[in-house]
Amino acid sequence: MAATTYPPGGTFLDTMKKSFVDVPIDAEKDNAIATTEFLEAAESLTTLFDVLGSVAFTPVKNDMLGNVKAISGAARFGELAGSGAQRAENEETYCDRGASAAEELSDSFRSAYTVTLKPHHSMFVKPIFSAAMSACPYRKDFYEKLGADREKVESELRVWLAALSKIIAILKGFLDRKEAKW
User: Fold this and answer.
1) Residue 50, exposed/middle/buried by CB under 10 A (0-12, 13-18, 19+)?
2) Which among 65, 137, 148, 167 has most CB atoms closer than 10 A?
3) Can you tell me whether residue 127 is helix, strand or coil?
4) What is the average pLDDT across 60-83?
5) Crossing angle of the two packed helices 82-97 and 35-45, in degrees rounded to 10
6) Nearest to 39, CA basis, from 107, 7, 96, 87
7) What is the distance between the alpha carbons of residues 48 and 79, in angstroms, rounded to a whole number?
8) Using CA atoms, how far apart are residues 156 and 160, in angstroms rounded to an integer?
């Protein structure tokens, strides 16, 4: 895969069509998450797999895009609910957990995969994801791929991850409620 280039002073996050930071949350409607913007942000997130630089991530990216498409079809009514929320929460928790700065990406992603997506994958899919986890670059190399200014990359990632974490918390709260258990 070719190296990703950004405008001078730019980062990967500048190239995203939609960020989780831009996803409206309506506090007056029980923290309803705007479906269209959420799905655009989730789709934008999948371009991160291109930055990782290995074709081993193609099945992972395709799986996430497939889930985005499935949620899009099921959630045309405006807010995430039911199984769409569960799929979304699993995908986003996987990415959020993969951001742990204390360990290498392959270890972070492998741990995140084990607790979020692995239980939903067949015995045929699990080895594909395992191979992708082994293809993760070292954390320092990954940050370099996100932009030349590491401090700016880390600053932007903190804001992006805070927005993603807020959405995950809302989705988890929804899924824990009685009316979500059907």
Assistant:
1) middle
2) 167
3) helix
4) 69
5) 40
6) 87
7) 25
8) 6
Tens-place pLDDT, residues 132-179: 888 888 888 888 999 999 999 999 999 999 999 899 888 888 878 887
Structure tokens at 116: 């979020």
Q: Look at residue 4 in the predicted model and tell me its pLDDT.
A: 65
| Count of Cβ atoms closer than 10 Å to residue 100 Cβ | 15
- Global model pTM greater than 0.90: no
- The 10 Å Cβ neighbour count of residue 60 is 23
* Residue 28 to residues 38, 75, 170, Cα–Cα distance (Å): 18, 20, 14
For the segment 51-56, the average pLDDT, to the nearest whole number, is: 85
pLDDT at 78 over 80: no
Q: 9 — alpha (psi -120 to 50), left (phi > 0) or beta?
A: left
